[in-house]
Recover the amino acids of this structure.
């Protein structure tokens, strides 16, 4: 009974909102480093838990995608990308950065809560763009100092780990559909 209440949409939205607030709390009030790190960790865990509880419902609703939900997904995807990139590159006050990031996180969660559409996967593009811009490309020259056999061993372990992870995920049986309210 408790698990069904936690998986309801309002509870998941509330959990995600509290997670976003905790993640960005240091933008609004003064916290020391331990308090800030604790809030970020707890907020991130809450947000990810809400998102992971939402994911099984996406597979169940894939057939119920409508034109209105596609429009809402498109709007939330475009607004998320715009706000995320604006918040990342706009130099403004700290509280405004926190507010922009919280709204962008809410739009991310909202887009993933809608029935599946092509826009749902496109929401990851701004995240990848920011990640690519954050990479220090000069640091890749450090790989030249690694012995080639060690580099091959590392790559082989990565491929093996990826294959094992894929097999574990592939073997999971789908759970029966549960009605979310």
């Amino acid at each position: 009974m408790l698990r069904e209440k936690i998986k309801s949409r309002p509870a998941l939205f509330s959990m995600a909102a509290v997670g976003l607030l905790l993640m960005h709390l240091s933008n609004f009030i003064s916290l020391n480093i331990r308090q800030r790190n604790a809030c970020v960790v707890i907020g991130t865990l809450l947000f990810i838990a809400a998102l992971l509880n939402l994911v099984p419902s996406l597979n169940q609703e894939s057939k119920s995608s409508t034109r209105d939900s596609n429009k809402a997904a498109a709007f939330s995807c475009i607004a998320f990308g715009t706000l995320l990139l604006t918040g990342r590159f706009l130099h403004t006050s700290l509280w405004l950065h926190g507010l922009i990031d919280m709204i962008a996180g809410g739009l991310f969660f909202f887009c993933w809560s809608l029935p599946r559409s092509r826009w749902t996967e496109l929401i990851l593009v701004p995240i990848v763009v920011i990640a690519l811009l954050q990479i220090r490309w000069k640091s890749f020259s450090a790989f030249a100092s690694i012995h080639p056999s060690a580099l091959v061993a590392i790559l082989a372990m990565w491929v093996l780990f990826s294959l094992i992870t894929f097999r574990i995920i592939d073997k999971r049986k789908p759970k029966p559909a549960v009605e979310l309210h």
In short: The chain has two domains: 2-135, 139-172. The CA atoms of residues 111 and 139 lie 35 Å apart. The mean pLDDT is 78.
